[in-house]
Amino acid sequence: MKLDITTLAAKKAGSIDLPEGVFGLEPRRDLLHRMVTYQLAKRRAGTHHTQTRGEVTGSTAKFGNQKGGGRARHGNRKGPQFRGGAKAFGPVSRDHALGMPKKVRALALRHALSAKATAGELIVLEDTEMKAPKTKELKGSLGKLGLEHALVIDGAEVSKNFALAARNIINLDVLPVQGINVYDILRRRKLVLTKSAVEALEARFK
């Protein structure tokens, strides 16, 4: 697959051959859905907790007679039906993470990249170098490229000036190539890869 390389000034800077094994697959919706579910479940804190009968502070003594009281046969006041009592079947602290093999996670990333390439929502930038961290200047450049809702993936390190200029622009995410993930790719309309990011991905999946 061949794609044009563009600059931040929206000028053509040659072309690049994208590996078919990474950008030319037929996207599988089931695999992408499974990966997004995995990511969202893994980032849940799981710190929600309510007290059980064994954790509520209070006496365990039987507070009424078994018979003749004219009321139900209760044990102690820590039951869920009493004020200040425990919560029946409440949430407990736990890990929400799901299991997913490493090879399947890698395959899902390739399918996400292929989905963007197939839909024509992939742009390759020559680099993200800027002379100064000017948000207004970057916003103008992104407007020329038609990037109003995008994820930008740079090389091993994001250009400092670009990162500073982009951090106050709404609907724009910037990540180094090692931080690329399926959820962030799919939640933005356009995916922007620098030449160094493409090379790093090609080496990663070789």
Describe the structure in your own words.
The chain is an alpha/beta fold and 206 residues long. It folds into two domains: 2-44 and 97-204, 3-Layer(aba) Sandwich (Ribosomal Protein L4, Chain: A), CATH 3.40.1370.10; 47-95, no CATH class. The protein has helices at 20-23, 29-42, 102-118, 135-145, 160-166, 182-187, 195-204, and strands at residues 2-6, 12-17, 122-125, 150-153, 172-175, 190-194. The protein starts with a strand and ends with a helix. The model has no long low-confidence stretch (mean pLDDT 94).
Write the layout of secondary structure elements.
Elements: E1 2-6, E2 12-17, H1 20-23, H2 29-42, H3 102-118, E3 122-125, H4 135-145, E4 150-153, H5 160-166, E5 172-175, H6 182-187, E6 190-194, H7 195-204
Parallel strand pairs: 1-3, 3-6, 4-5, 4-6
Antiparallel strand pairs: 1-2
Helix pairs in contact: 4-5
